[in-house]
Amino acid sequence: MHPPTVFTLKKSSIGRLNCMFRCSQPCLAAALTATQCRSNADCTSPSSPGPICSFDTTIGGVTVTQSSTCSNGVDAPDVRGTCVGYCATQAAYLTAIKCGTVGQGGAQGTPSVCSSSGLTCLPNSQCKRLACDPSTNAFTTEPCYGFCVVAARTVNPGKMQPDGRSIVAGLSTAPVAASFPCASLFDSNTMAKLGVDALCSTGVDPNSNAPVLKIALGPQSIFMPGTDTLTVSSTQTALVDLLDLTQKFTGSNINVAPCNVVIGQPDSCKPPIGLIIGPAQVPAPCDDSTATDVIFDASHSSDPSGRAFKNVIWSTTSQDIKMITAVSVANNAKALRLVLPGSDNLNLAEGTYTISVTFTNFLGVTSAPATWQFTRVAGGSTPVVTLPTDLSYRIAEGFKVPVTLMVASVCANQKVRQSQRTVHCVNGFCQCQGFMQSH
Q1: Residue 188 pLDDT > 50, yes or no?
Q2: Are the beta carbons of 325 and 221 closer than 8 angstroms?
Q3: Looking at the DSSP assignment, which residues form a beta bridge with residue 180?
Q4: How remote is the C-alpha of 152 from its chain's centroid?
Q5: How far apart are alpha carbons 233 and 261 in whole angstroms?
Q6: Do residues 35 and 83 make contact, with C-beta atoms less than 8 angstroms apart?
Q7: Which of 240, 241, 334, 378 is deepest in the core (most CB within 10 A)?
């Protein structure tokens, strides 16, 4: 029987033995090659292709390997990149910013062909473009033959904006920044639709940063998107190429799409805003001779476009034939005022009445209903006053509102008490002051 074998280990060997029993890979990882690296510190030798340790496989020549090695007795990842020059890491960036230029030509000075369709080379003796010098690993400039620019400079299809007051059309390339009367750009037929006071300006789309032409329609514009088109005058000189001032923009029968008539979308057309002004109480006439018309005025309703309404529709919840007739008359005339004639006012039954009106603008967008409610009360119970509807006021300057008492609403042997109030404001604090007087 042999005696047991006894191992004597030096302290320096314990780590290697422990690794051998616990790790799946050899304790000593393979050495880095001349092009491999774990950090920039591994790319400093004279034989290294460059000083940058890259793990970006989109860069030409860069490979990434991943394995494991042993560290303190456990497996550890070993990821290796490739040493490359600084210029290699900037190649994609330089390609992107060079997209508008072409390189120097051959011995005869002929330019390279622009790579994208629809582009042509515009020679420029001052042309310079950014490059990278591998000997210094730094950016520099190099000469170029010219710029790749669009072959045709055109005004492209546009779209009516939500307010109905302006059109934004695309441009095939960047123009010289300018603002000018549209009459200096478009032909006479187009201007007859845009309005003689229409103004044009260049700009960029806030979302795509693409060049655009903005058209602010004139007050008398009758332009209809989806029907009317734009045509650039053949003699115009107002809109020219930014890189070549001799090249003018062109375009004929350019379509303009309407804004979105579905309310609530990002490009939705803005609807009209309805407003009704009328008496809250309509007292019965004291007698036949005092029966007057009752007017409900919606003439202060508005549309963001500033144009006249395409349609006006009045309605009532009442089943009273007199109110139904008044609504029908107003609708047939597309009237902005609903009038209850004095003869019908004379026999209107007591109760509460509701009327509404909606407006449709030239874009086909309809407003939310504007509603007014009034109560029919006994004769002589409430004096009626009217306000002028054709006056505007500037609150900052202070103002007085004239009112007119409807004498017919005051029956015989009755008195009217007049109440007048003044609003006095100082530093944003307002206080009412007033007095009463009997008549």
Answers
A1: yes
A2: no
A3: 200
A4: 28
A5: 31
A6: yes
A7: 241
